[in-house]
Amino acid sequence: MRSVFTGTADAPTAPDVAVVVDVMRAFTVAAWALRRGAERIVFAGTQEEALDLKARHPGWLAFQDGPPVPGFDLANSPARLRSLDVRGRTIVQKTTAGTVGALSVADAGLLLCASFAVAGATAELLRRARPDTVTFVVTGDGGRAEEDLACAEYIARRVRTPDADPGPYLERARRSDAAARLADGVRQGWAGVHPEDVALCCEADSVPFAMAAARLDGHLVLRQAAPPATARPSPPAH
Hints:
The protein has a single domain, classed as Alpha-Beta Complex (putative 2-phosphosulfolactate phosphatase), CATH 3.90.1560. 34% of the residues lie in helices and 20% in strands. The protein has 9 helices and 9 strands. Helix 6 (146-160) packs antiparallel against helix 7 (167-174). It is globular.
């Protein structure tokens, strides 16, 4: 498997296989929302679209990044998600990096969204699917986010080496600019940031499934990925 690492702006619009990475915090939140029983996550292009979808579908929840915004149910904090019951719910998510990156490659043949939480499961899916090339989309900081690149490289390494040590990759994430900004937000008392967010974002392989996105009813929808079917062996030649 050949791995290509790119930012959102330079990503091909329809790669065969794309893995969109947002560690802090979009796809850590998405992974834990699905793990806690959410049915699906619908990506919105704007906050206005997210709130409109929520208004038109009673019972849907809406998540966004940054400080809390009226009408949204969560400011994209994995730690604060623990106090929100998402079982059976549809979540609309809008962020400045992760959802933008996913929407930019919405026409990929296989589109996975990843963070450290689902890294091992994502690598296992790729190992079984055996694609020739995987495009890893680093979404944070204009494609330069160290935590996203570290996660992408860890997934690529896990495909080749299933027992690869996540430690060095997690350390890069803990020392990243994004982690520093969240820590500074905690010190300054920013709403929507929790003291445990960085630690939760830096837990590897804590969610046992990968996440796949596909178009449905005009929207890009993220769900738990079904494992790829194992190819049948060829019958012996006679």
